Amino acid sequence: MTLxxxxxxxxxxxxxxxxxxxxxxxxxxxxxxxxxxxxxxxFLQALIQTTVALHHFHRNNLxxxxxxxxxxxxxxxxYPPTFANIDxxxxxxxxxTCLETLSTGEPTAAFTRPRIRPPSL
Length: 121
Prior knowledge:
With 121 residues, the protein is mostly helical. The chain has helices spanning 8-19, 22-33, 40-58, 62-76, 88-103; strands at 82-83, 86-87.
């Protein structure tokens, strides 16, 4: 299965992610995740967990955010540097940075969302 980020629910989710509507991003991507085969299914689950973690972060549920980012990072460990046209190496590094920020117990406004973006979009 090829994940097409230029149209449909994946493109809609990217737009929502960029605008900061993380819960809606999760909803858009979940519709694809439900029908995806492996290894795309696990990859999408990691992306969805990342978006839900950001939703929790913005609701000040730092424990929930930490747990979901940790789970997403574990899932992404088995993927190559680029998968489904996403820079997985960059995404893993960004998630790790978020986890380091959360571990301080005092995340600041400097908390930046992981970069989930196909290079062509």
